[in-house]
Amino acid sequence: MTEEHDTICIVDNGGQFAHLIASRIRDHLKVKTVIMDPQTDANEILGALGIILSGGPDSIHEEGAVKLNPDIMEIEAPILGLCYGMHQIAVHYGGNVSRSDLKEYGYARLGSEDDPIFEGIPQNDRVWMSHGDKVTELPVGFSTIGRTDNCPISAMSDPARRRWGFQFHPEVEDTAHGMEMLGNFVLKICGARPTWRTGDIISEIVDRIKEEAGSRKVLTLVSGGVDSSVVAALLNRALPPEQLRFIHIDTGLMRHDESRMVEAALREQGLENLKVINSKEAYFDALDGLVDPEEKRKVIGRLFVEIVNREAVFARDSDWVLAQGTLYPDTIESGGTRNADIIKTHHNRVDLIMEMIDEGRVIEPVRELYKAEVRQVGELLGLPPEMVHRHPFPGPGLGIRALCQDESVIEADLKGIGSIQRDVEMAIRRDVWASERLSALVLPIRSVGVKGDARSYEHPVAMWCLSDFEWGDLKTFATRLVNGTRGINRCIIILHPETFRTPVPVPRYLTEKRVDLLREADRIVMEGLVNHDLYDRVWQCPTVLVPLSFGRGELIVIRPVWSSRAMTAEVAELPDEFYTDVMHGLLSLTGIESVAVDVTSKPPGTIEWE
Question: Which domains does the chain have, with CATH numbers?
Fold first, then answer.
């Protein structure tokens, strides 16, 4: 631990949030942070001004759940526990944590008591929940300082011991005054000093690149997105051109005309030693017949590595390493930290990459950063705004936006769907707002989601309104429906209810013809965002092709979200004129027969469907 006594220690309980907490504290409060394992020797943390225990995917009473070194609780510095961290504090001091009757994923309203950590925070404040357990009995000495409708002990404190706990997540943007709460803890209660500067991160990364690369040649895959472009610029700053090679692979899974535009943009930035490789045929051959989303991701990632190995001949007899634009969310969602659950395997975390990492043959300069921080670095490096603020596009490209299934998957998806449908219908009847205007159908297909930092693979619900509605009301109901109904993790709204018919699941694979259809649909949506002056108002807008047949074609789902770090995401409310314009364009495509909008926040629905 630093001797400067100006550092906040974040204890990583797994899941998504430790690095997010650290990132937000650095960005907004300008305070240095360090991340530690829960079993760290307490002596290594003694220099910290304060300690934050992060959330995590475990239930605290389960066998194999993350355990905290109890000596950490005896440190005199202030401690704030968030979600699972709150449970650790409660159990350590003799309280009780139980399974919640109603799991919560999404917004809640917090009623707070007078406490230093809530100084300046308004009543009925919006907070973000993601939990299945909750504190049901306070330890001696603690008092309740915050409550929501479904969680009577949403915040607790013991001023004498200087211990606090939040069931909600103040570190996500979705908690309206979360940074003020963290500021009260970090700056006022802990007394930390704002000594961290954003520019420090570039010099730290450049020094680390020089150390990790040494004299070895470095081969880098560049997609043209902000992550790989920033990595390329950092490598150019750290190493001489003769040590570097850059490759852009056209997989056939790119957006309309994307590879040409990417090559032009990279060459305009003066990127030397850039090679563009057309591998469409290899990718479609490798993906032929695959339906499982995890297997598709892994095959795409493995093929990247095989191409890299073939191109590494430039190094001849010298040693070489692969540089990647891996972000922290990629690592977390791939189960890449000790206590994290696998949500979805990113292409830069497949088995061959992991073997290379274990061998010390991969460098990942921005691996501890989030998208927002990478964009800040890109701006400081002087990259053009259109590259820095480009919508995120996944490495597997359209390959994970065209859902696939065969007869065995269809048969499995149809099992048990009737009981889920009954639960959904009952939930709608019991809801005053929904019962007056909504109908819904559980779809016989599944998508990936995240609940309580753990992976879910469950059904979406298609809803349609028979009267006018407000997007905000619809999003709120979607959160209530998913939280209170088993077996679902996503809600979509059909844009043309008057012509909507019950869909039939059909076998579909990742063929070149089907990807071409999705590419054209994606082009229509992207051009619609630009034409309606919405592109910069939306953080990301995947277009998803879903293999449900209505007689002549499949379902297209538009997924507009607002986020900054991808750990959480809120549905972006767009004007009806945009949807009307885009819907007409999509329905004009041969092979598309229905259009919907995904209105699910993250959690419980991941941004991508696979």
Answer: 7-189 (3.40.50.880), 200-396 (3.40.50.620), 407-598 (3.30.300.10)
